Amino acid sequence: MIRDQESMNVLLDAVRRFVRERLIPAEEAVVETDEIPADIVSDMKELGLFGMSIPEEYGGLGLTMEEEALTVIELCMASPAFRSVIGTTVGIGSQGIVMDGTEEQKRAWLPRLASGELIASFALTEPDAGSDAASLRTTAVRDGDDYVVNGTKRYITNAPEAGVFTLMARTDPANKGAGGITAFVVDARSPGISFGTNDRKMGQRGAHTCDVIFSDCRVPARNVIGAREGRGFRTAMKVLDKGRIHLAAVCVGAAERILEEALRYAMQRRQFGQAIGEFQLVQAMLADSKAELYAARCMVLDAARRRDAGENVSTEASCAKLFASEMCGRIADRAVQIHGGAGYMSEYAVERFYRDVRIFRIYEGTSQIQQLVIARNMMREASA
Ligand code: COS
To answer: What pTM value is reported for the model?
Structure first.
């Protein structure tokens, strides 16, 4: 749903200009330094990007899912590392509070997230709990007005920069499944939290992940999201349903850029006396990419509109994430192929994108987890 087309156009134009004039020219510097320049982060704050998904009453832009998807597609025409700066605050880090938080929790945390003053991170994954998220072992034991948290969270995006974590921990040791898990908002400066060294990743330099270690970390009981124990897994799943649409939009934006690079190269590069774009085998790669990209875009926007209309979009979100992330991988692969030897060289953007987009098929649920969610939902609906 687009609430006001004119304001939407203003936002999209501003993001498009920002991408073209500020982000794309800074891509190489980000690779060199492994940092997003501070002036770019402050411009992102000014554009309101950190508060994209936070309701207006708490200082955000309060975008609908369709508006968010369109904005993210534009933003992701630049290196995915730039989106990652705002990604967890817009998505999985904040949405548990937005969806299930108490009024007091919303007032306490959302305005500072919306302004970009605080970065939010999502602490679900553990060394032994990845796809099987419900098997997580981090414990939170009630002690007076606090919970005492112990455990290790792994590959936590933006943890080194985080001001606050949405943490999933087990409050009921007798319940080893989803029902024993509670979600908390945790101040990242709390005593008892320490950080591993930054992970060395395949791509996305400038975006940081690391372990977060909780050792007897005291978290006030008022920080239980929604003030109810045992609801944390559901909160995490609802957050991921929305996150998967956002991520599918990320894939569409990145694929648009990659295809643009491939098309430009195909029209410039000459072999056998003509531009390689004149060869039908290269045309086939361009055409397949265009068609798949169009399909993914339609899926993302349809899932977003359905969510805005209040439908349960668990299946559609997983379909969009599955298709769009796989599509993006195929397009990155073809773009390298069209570039030939040059595509293997780091001076060409497609070499970097090829590595950067590989994670899309893995995080916020692997392609196999999306398949599992889709098939399970199909069977559940059929037997209802
Ligand atoms: N929305 C709301 N609630 C949901 C839900 C959704 N989309 N999906 C599941 N739930 C609820 C279920 O209704 C169930 O609650 P009840 O027991 O009260 O009925 C509970 O959550 C457990 O659901 P389920 O039995 O389906 O859980 P499983 O352990 O079988 O796992 C998968 C479900 C595999 C889908 C889940 O673990 C998953 O998404 N894993 C991937 C995790 C992930 O994406 N990690 C990335 C880390 S974040 S970058």
So the answer is: 0.97
